[in-house]
Design goal:
Strand content: 5-15%
Radius of gyration: 22 Å
CATH superfamily of the domain at 38-146 and 208-264 and 444-522: Alpha/Beta hydrolase fold, catalytic domain
Number of strands: 11
Strand order of the largest sheet: 1-2-4-3-5-6-9-10-11
Distance between the termini: 30 Å
Structural class: alpha/beta
Helix content: 25-40%
CATH class of the domain at 38-146 and 208-264 and 444-522: Alpha Beta
Order of helices and strands: HHEEEHHEHHHHEHEHHEEHHHHHEHEHE
Length: about 525
């Protein structure tokens, strides 16, 4: 089978083959799983029927991926867990049955790749096809990916923008961005068009992380697993931590890679993230400066100023980017930011900056942004951006316009390469201010969790998106063990990057064997 070339640094990652010694099945836990409430039994007792994945593809890329031997089904869950007799949602689930002897099968390995808004179905296929097919994990586990409620192939899915609006760069929100001018009318309209495209305000209110964790427990039961074995990356570490908080006795094992700090509130986390990306930008500038034709110049100390001179004009004057499209500030800096998730992508970003400087074009930067955001070659977009907005609106703390403006100023201070050079007072608002529900996650979350088995937490020293120290914070909350990985990237496990990490992960997932204190891997 031909695998399409897909470049999305955080969401769609390949995996490496692991050669390990086959081990016996681990001992069963002595704790019993938590019993569901009586009114939810019909959901927990449902039998998942798997068949062809043909109707599950939402893009041309997915149509190439969702084929035999992968099989798909739909899990029914309540729209509102407080009203289980009301409307329901359908969660799209993809499975590759364990490839080894039936007697060696441990159960299901449930995967979430991050975002929020990323497709667990896609990453499950890619990880299996690009490296795991001869590995022990595929022999011992059913490989399971699911699209969380509101995401991808699950229904109803969050839908705020048309493909044409996405192509024009009109899909920006203030949630994580640093540019754009917003009024109350703009944020009200944003909520309204999301509600209209997604099936109503009740759908927008239903897609927070705590509801996804509840869905995951229903999925565990429907898959026939007494205990959950889970692998989560980036936002998937938040989902895993919340599941652990809500259902600690239902956990067999968890690998959490690229950790979100459960003690950081929304503003603190955004500042931490932007400081990390400025650090990665500075390192990329040093790498670039080794070449005499570096578009950021040969003095890394001046790279941010050079970048601002090149990119700030795009706010008013987007540049041509091929096929009748243009690249504005938001799209072009989005391409740079996407490439900062891993040092491997720096050359591609530098080439894009050089094209902007030398040709006045944004084709290459727009292509990186398209790949990361989920646009396929036919011009069809996934709903990653919309789902990211909706899930975060149900999770993150809200800010007044004054607080949002102050936060944007602080972001520019720690991440000056993204500074627009524009005033922020009176034009900056919280994208979620008119959302039809209040946030339900709560900060801090997953603190002092009891009854949970030891988890494996992976933190990379040069992670731009989830700082290294967040791993220790989550480990303290959950009672987990941190594996330190030295390198410059965001997430690493089950990718074709580090045999050291993959071996440790496999030993843990199969035998529940944690690394020794002080064990490290180097990329």
């Amino acid at each position: 089978m031909r695998i399409p070339k897909i470049y999305t640094q955080r969401l769609l990652t390949g995996t490496a083959v692991m050669s390990l010694v086959l081990a016996g099945a681990p001992a069963a836990s002595t704790q019993s799983a938590q019993e569901p409430a009586a009114e939810l039994e019909r959901f927990y007792n449902q039998h998942l029927t798997f068949g062809s994945c043909e109707s599950f593809a939402t893009t041309a890329i997915e149509a190439q991926l969702y084929v035999d031997p992968f099989e798909c089904g739909r899990l029914e869950v309540p729209l509102d867990y407080d009203d289980p007799e009301g409307e329901t949602m359908q969660i799209a689930v993809l499975r590759l049955p364990a490839q080894g002897e039936p007697s060696q099968r441990i159960g299901s390995l449930v995967i979430n790749p991050g975002g929020p808004g990323g497709s667990g179905m896609q990453v499950a296929v890619l990880s299996a096809l690009t490296g795991q097919k001869d590995g022990l994990l595929l022999q011992r586990f059913d490989w399971v990916g699911f699209d969380p409620r509101g995401v991808g192939s699950s229904t109803p899915a969050i839908n705020c923008f048309t493909d044409e609006e996405n192509d024009r760069g009109e899909n920006q929100t203030t949630l994580l961005g640093t540019s754009g001018e917003w009024s109350a009318a703009d944020t009200r309209q944003l909520m309204g068009q999301c509600a209209e495209g997604s099936g109503g305000e009740q759908v927008l209110a239903a897609v927070g992380t705590r509801n996804v964790a509840r869905d995951m427990d229903v999925l565990r039961s429907a898959l026939g697993d007494e205990k959950l074995t889970f692998f989560g990356q980036s936002y998937g570490t938040r989902l895993g931590a919340v599941y652990a908080e809500m259902f600690p006795q239902n956990v067999r094992a968890m690998v959490l890679d690229g950790v979100i700090d459960p003690r950081q509130g929304s503003a603190e986390r955004r500042l931490s993230l932007h400081a990390g990306f400025q650090r990665s930008f500075d390192l990329m500038a040093e790498f670039c400066a080794q070449s005499s034709d570096c578009p950021l110049g040969t003095d890394p100390e001046q790279a941010t100023a050079v970048f601002q001179d090149l990119f700030q004009p795009l706010i008013d004057d987007p540049v041509p980017a091929g096929n009748g499209r243009t690249a504005n500030f938001f799209q072009a800096t989005g391409g740079v930011g996407a490439g900062l998730y891993t040092a491997d992508a720096w050359p591609r970003v530098i080439d894009g900056i050089a094209q902007l400087k030398n040709e006045g074009r944004g084709d290459q930067l727009l292509a990186i942004n398209d790949d990361f955001s989920g646009r396929d070659p036919n011009g069809t977009w996934t709903n990653f951006i919309e789902a990211n907005l909706a899930i975060n609106c149900n999770d993150e703390e809200r800010r007044t316009p004054e607080e949002e403006a102050d936060l944007r100023r602080q972001i520019f201070a720690v991440n000056p390469f993204l500074d627009t050079g524009r005033e922020v007072e009176g034009v900056t608002r919280d994208a979620c201010e008119f959302w039809p529900s209040e946030p339900t996650l709560g900060f801090p979350y997953a603190q002092d969790v009891e009854g949970l088995p030891d988890t494996l937490i992976i933190s990379i020293t040069g992670d731009p998106a989830t700082p290294y120290g967040a791993g220790a914070s989550l480990a303290e909350a959950l009672g987990g063990t941190v594996l330190t990985v030295e390198g410059e990237r965001h997430t690493v496990a089950l990718e074709g990057i580090s045999p050291c990490v993959n071996e440790i992960v496999a030993n843990y997932l199969i035998d529940l064997e944690l690394p020794a204190e002080g064990d490290r891997c180097v990329l």
